[in-house]
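Treating backbone geometry as a discrete language has practical consequences that deserve illustration. Part of our work consisted of pairing the sequence of a single chain with a tokenised description of its backbone. What the numbers capture is local backbone geometry rather than side-chain detail. For completeness, the protein is quoted in full, as a sequence line and a line of structure tokens:
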Amino acid sequence: MRFIFSFPLFPAIGLTILFPVIALGANHASKEICLETRTLPQSPNPSSRDVSQEAHTQAEATIANVSQEARTEIELTIADVSRKALGNNLDLRIEKFAPRISEEQVRAAEADFDPDMSFGGTLTRTYADTDLSEIDSRGEEMSAAIGKRFSSGIQTSVGVSASKSKTDVNTVGETDEYATSANLTLTLPLLKNRGREVNTRNISLSRNNHKIAELTLRQTAIDTISQAQILYWNLYKAQQELDVQKKSLELAKKFSELSRGRAKIGHIASIDTLQADAEVAAREEWVIIAENDVRNRRRSLLYFILGRCETGITVKLLQKPTYEKAVFDENRLFLSALENRTDYLIAKLDIKNAETNVVYAKNQTLPTGDLSATLSVNGLGESWGKAYENAGSGEDYSGSLGISLEFPWGMKKDKAAHQIALYENRRSRTRLFQAEQNILSDVRTALDNLTEADKRYHTTTLSKQLAEKKLSAEERKFGLGLSTSYNVLLYQRDLTDAAVRTISAVIDYQLALIHLDRVTGMTLERHAIGAEEF
């Protein structure tokens, strides 16, 4: 969103304040607003002076604050914008959290097979008063157990307990009894939830998802570097086009002066000077448009590579475009893309996830059948020592062996989930095929664009040279009185257009190389950027 307010301060000077509003939310005070100031010619309309004094005062205060900022210049190359964007770009900084989150999810899934430990203690007292006797019973019990689930589905538990009971009967007296127990429990799934692949499903999925998060981060880094370079070359192009428009304006001004001189001595008609003056005004408009384009593209580049809106900064671009005719083998590029394109690698991981879900869903269609076994060794005595001694003898033991079977009627829910998993598997394989075709299309398109930019570079360079010769010849004819100002101005425009097209062709060739690296997944390798840098 962009608001423009004009405040006339002096008869010949106007002020414009631009407010590019960035993501205004509920807390406006915490948001950042970029302010720029510049002067424009005063509007001839007297009604524009009708501005409230309050708004005028606020504008002056804003200008005073902004004008105090020291204007600085930063020098940038392609490598500079790439690394600054990797360190500061907000989209990339946000995406960096995804692998960390997925790594914690892997740990959470692996925790399903960590041992569980439990401890407990109980104090009891029972008092009964009957006609025959009074009974006062007190008890103490402590227990501890450790259990673990294995990836095969087997669950085990080992526990120990010790208890002491004291019974006081008024007719008999006090009796103490000590008991110890050690038990082992084993549960083996026979059908449902049996097998390593079924029980480690969540771990497999979370590990694949972690790899997907890392690939997504890599793709974000590739996109960030590519976009930073595109913004660099767009700013370079805007600066060069501004220089062209300024030179074009100077040509028009010189020709206007020449036309007025020739008109004074009667060599040309006065209408020719009017045409020249009109052309100067038109080219001044072109310069104004080009200057605004430079400002906008500079602001976009700085925001992208610094992660914040900056004012008072000028940019000097040190790296100039170079032209080196490149020859690529389509088959090699395609194979390279299959090895490096993140969307293709993610599609392969999606297939692994789908296959894991198919195995799990198929297993869940089976009934629940568990084999369980329990073995306990007990010891009783009048003291702790006697109780442990009896337990160690192994003479007092107990055990059980059981089997259970359970299944929902028809098992419609589990069968539907299995069918869904099969469809998801087929869909993921279709997406992999789609990714292959997209890569093939992208590589061919990128090569075609590179070829086109290469041809345009040669044709536009020749066109500019011819436009310069045509203008020079027409200026000589005009000096001899054999041409008109209209023709000279027209050839000047042709030269300006040819120069702009030449700049566009050179920059488009650089952009085509950037796009080719991106579609083949080689952007990071091309610029020697490792994963540790982002």
